[in-house]
Q: What sequence folds into this?
């Protein structure tokens, strides 16, 4: 087998055989296929595509490059959720303990933010003491204690994907549905969950800008999960505006705790409950209703156990940014548009995100929303508050927001429905 | 400017701006754009193409990455030829001194063989003492003495092309007409020749397998040369069967000397004379007729001066392989097919070519043809002789030849005409 043969097969629009895929992914992981060879192959895959069988083979080869987790020692089914990433998307934080409180185990390996979208681990790390890195044994302990665990993926899980993801990031080969789908699903299948709900975001703040592309990605991932024996369902959900009213690490933790306390913004509550029901149904668990678990304190109890089991202090004060700046409404009317990407970019520039993997994030930085699209606003009233550790960051955040919102005399904003579609 | 922006522009079928091209080629040469980024870009170029303006810009950026030669100190016009490579294509050897004998200077930077096609420098190095590496000053000296010089390109000429060529070789991105054309033409334009004749080979033994692809490459290169002020003409010529009767380094030198002595195989003589006339016409030189110069010894004199000026001994015995093996005709009839690629592959496996750039070649190894397509052959009579330094090589050469020739009862073979088309 030879890397050039594999590259040329895909370049000429051929179908990669299972042997070619197993060999090239394995040899790349071992360093026998060079980075420049894999990047040429990734570009050929991006431009010429892969069929269902090739994507399944590619995903399996990435799983086979590392270890696979096993939760068969647990006495109840496992369920997980994966979001393709958005602005203000803190749903994992209330969702994982909520589903645990309703009777399924949630073993979630999560990631960090890069670019304008936040990362669940960065958010949880704003809780003093909380620790993201756990051994598989420690994960099992947290699961038994709290019913849910959210932690960083160890290096042994799908190492091929880890290597390929870094390569795609610098070679303009990220935006390939076969490569995105296999990257996500290889980690989720290797994670060993029995059922999986995918939250595929659509809109300016999401990776997939159109419903068509999002549907294609969702369908590909549902097929991959199903073929691998994981009960998989996908929802396409709105990311044309931010989720909730808080964007930024500690700000989103605080909002999540509000939801777990039975309050919080309507869209965050609605999506959390909807995803919880999907996860419980996929896991075949019909215990407590999620809406009840948010009201009766059992979801909050699970949250506290989960944070404490990972050495976090759920009662500690969260970090706050040193500086704030209020953006006021320039006119009276209806907030007809508040662009998710503009708000995400502003939060990133305020310090909530990182430009390079090795950069730190500011836990307190971000944006809070005083109005959501469709709300009436009054000229001069607060529209957004910006949070940053240095006032010097406000200018670039404001320029990110320029053109990112509109106030109309009295129009009904045309927004995507919160849940656009369901693919099973 | 950012490598990912450039890659994504081409990936999305956009047109690269002159600024993008200058930046990416320059930064790649300086090592600021990584190999894996350039290979992704090369694959995107291969699959999505470049327009005439982009190819011209790319070529110019590669020329600008290094030095440019200048022959204005010479008192007569310069002319060069470039072949895209074939099996038994030793034409440069008789052609360069022939054109010099007819009144134009020939400053040719040449290359080594890789794969099944031979390289002019490897052939000339089979002449004892001959030296391929010359400084520009030494080149000028040889030109003044002999009228023609054939030597290796120094590292200062189009270093971007040198780096990119090695990368394309291992990443399945060789077969792109814009990249092939800009690679060839950047070196030929930087070489400083005033006029250029391109011999674009077509057929199984050539890089371009079809007349259509060869015409596209030829047209692209003629446009590039013309736009850069080099009078450029291309011939499309046959490479469905080998050129001449000798394939292999020293074997081809011997055949070239036969041509310079007024003999040699008809196809080699015809193509040499045709190319010489094109070069002289492009250079605007109307001195001696090439057919006369082959008969009256003046081309041979130029050859001897050229070899001696580069420290070679034109009278030395050429290296011979230690072992030979005769392949006989399996039946009587007409040799209806003798596949160029099969013969080239056999010669390569006999030791005439190299698998990796750093491998040595065997000067004596190769194949001699006792019949050419269209010739009558008798069962049991010699068809080919294989030459190698070890008998162990014969088996693999024979398997390369299996199916590579056919003997028909009495048919007219369907061969490409020697000169298929002319593009000016």
A:
């Amino acid at each position: 087998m030879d890397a050039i043969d594999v590259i040329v097969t895909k370049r000429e629009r051929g179908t990669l055989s299972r042997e070619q895929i197993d060999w090239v992914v394995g040899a790349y992981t071992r360093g026998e296929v060079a980075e420049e060879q894999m990047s040429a192959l990734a570009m050929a895959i991006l431009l010429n595509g892969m069929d269902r069988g090739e994507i399944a083979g590619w995903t399996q080869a990435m799983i086979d490059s590392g270890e696979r987790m096993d939760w068969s020692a647990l006495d109840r089914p496992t369920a997980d959720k994966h979001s393709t990433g958005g602005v203000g998307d803190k749903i994992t934080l209330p969702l994982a303990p909520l589903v645990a409180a309703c009777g399924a185990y949630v073993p979630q390996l999560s990631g960090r933010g890069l670019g304008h979208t936040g990362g669940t681990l960065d958010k949880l790390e704003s809780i003093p003491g909380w620790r993201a890195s756990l051994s598989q044994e420690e994960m099992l302990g947290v699961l038994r204690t709290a019913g849910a665990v959210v932690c960083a993926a160890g290096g042994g899980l799908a190492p091929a994907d880890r290597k390929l993801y870094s390569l795609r990031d610098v070679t303009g080969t990220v935006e390939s549905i076969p490569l995105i789908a296999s990257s996500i699903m290889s980690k989720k299948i290797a994670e060993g969950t029995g059922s999986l709900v995918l939250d595929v975001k659509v809109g300016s703040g999401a990776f997939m800008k159109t419903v068509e592309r999002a549907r294609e990605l969702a369908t590909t991932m549902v097929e991959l999960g199903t073929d691998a024996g994981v009960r998989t369902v996908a929802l396409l959900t709105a990311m044309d505006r931010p989720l909730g009213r808080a964007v930024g690490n500690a700000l989103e933790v605080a909002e999540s705790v509000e939801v777990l306390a039975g309050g919080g913004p309507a869209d965050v509550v609605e999506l959390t409950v909807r995803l919880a029901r999907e996860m419980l149904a996929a896991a075949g668990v019909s215990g407590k209703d999620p809406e009840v678990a948010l009201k009766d304190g059992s979801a909050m109890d699970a949250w506290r156990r989960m944070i404490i089991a990972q050495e976090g202090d759920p009662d500690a004060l969260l970090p706050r940014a040193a500086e704030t700046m209020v953006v006021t409404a320039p006119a009276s009317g209806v907030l007809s548009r508040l662009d998710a990407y503009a708000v995400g970019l502003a939060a990133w520039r305020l310090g909530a995100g990182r430009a390079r993997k090795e950069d730190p994030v500011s836990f307190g930085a971000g944006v809070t929303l005083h109005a959501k699209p469709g709300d009436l606003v009054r000229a001069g009233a607060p529209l957004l508050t910006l949070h940053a550790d240095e006032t010097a960051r406000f200018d670039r955040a404001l320029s990110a927001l320029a053109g990112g919102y509109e106030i109309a005399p009295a129009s009904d904003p045309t927004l995507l429905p919160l849940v656009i579609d369901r693919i099973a």
Observations:
- Chain B has a mean pLDDT of 95.
